[in-house]
Amino acid sequence: MTKITLSTIAKKANTSVASVSRVLKKPHLTSPKIQLRVYQAIEELNMDTSKNFKPYKPIHNSGKILIIDNQLYSKSLINAGLEQVLKEEQFQMFYLQFPYHNKTDIHHIIRYVAQHAFDGIIIINDAPYLKTLVAYKTTLPPIVLVNHFSLDFICVDFDHLLIGHQITKYLIDKSHTKIAILLNNEKLTSSTLLLQGYKQALLRANITIEPRYIIHGCFTYQHARSAVKKLINSNKAPTAVICSDNFSLSCLDKSDYKDRNQSPDNMVLGAVHQANENQTKLTKPLIISYFSSSKELKYNQLDTLSRINKPLFEMGQKSATLLCELIKSTAKPTKRCKIIEAESIFY
Prior knowledge:
Elements: H1 6-13, H2 17-25, H3 32-45, E1 64-69, H4 77-88, E2 92-96, H5 106-116, E3 120-124, H6 130-133, E4 143-146, E5 154-158, H7 160-173, E6 179-182, H8 189-204, E7 214-215, H9 221-232, E8 240-243, H10 266-277, E9 287-292, E10 306-309, H11 312-327, E11 337-340
Parallel strand pairs: 1-2, 1-3, 3-4, 4-5, 5-11, 6-7, 6-8, 8-9, 9-10
């Protein structure tokens, strides 16, 4: 296999070796046009450039923050929280939704960051490119993830494992032994941890885990209606249902959500409406628990349910505050993850 060198890239990009070197090590000294040609050449050569970039140095002080928003339901309270802090710190915010398809696409982010000389980056929710971005972490400004747990990046997250255990234990303490859980995307870390917490609570209470009560791929109104209808019509209908956290869904998986309704509450509304339609088949009302973004009342049927209040606004604030501390070099390098606790969990 032929070794790819700077000379190979320069020839492919029809530029000089010095220009290629500047793009990789001193991008602020090169024009967007040259950067585009070099990155296109790198993509065509399918080259791993993670070790060719110069380590990031905070030399810009541009006052600009890049927010890569991967939320399926955008403009959530996470955005409101981080925008409040960044405005107070007098940062300009630039939003980006990054349509990632393959590993070479990561160069689009690197080029965009270099061209705008951002002081820091906030990434909301999980994304498939994070695994690739790890290799380039030292070449980019400080990065903070929010609403997603990672061992590779500093992050602000919500403990789905603990919450899964707590809500299930709460229902068990209320004499429920037949508890179902509606999960959205089984590939999401949040869904995996929520399910683990659910199973742990059942096992610790010596309750058998029933596979029929674990429903995957449930995130829309119609999905929830179908799932609850099937559960109620089964020989062993559950007495309680836990609806998963739709705030963690990513727009990059939108091919999975073709029939989605544009609200994270639609799944639980589907569950409630189906339970109401089938109430004659139930010996007592079906208890439904769901994730809410705040303690504020919604003034609809959801206000009568058990709620897990996921403080998105506070998560946004914490992520922005942490990023500002990193930019100012006041945060400790060992500070990896800030876990946000649920507010007034169940009532």
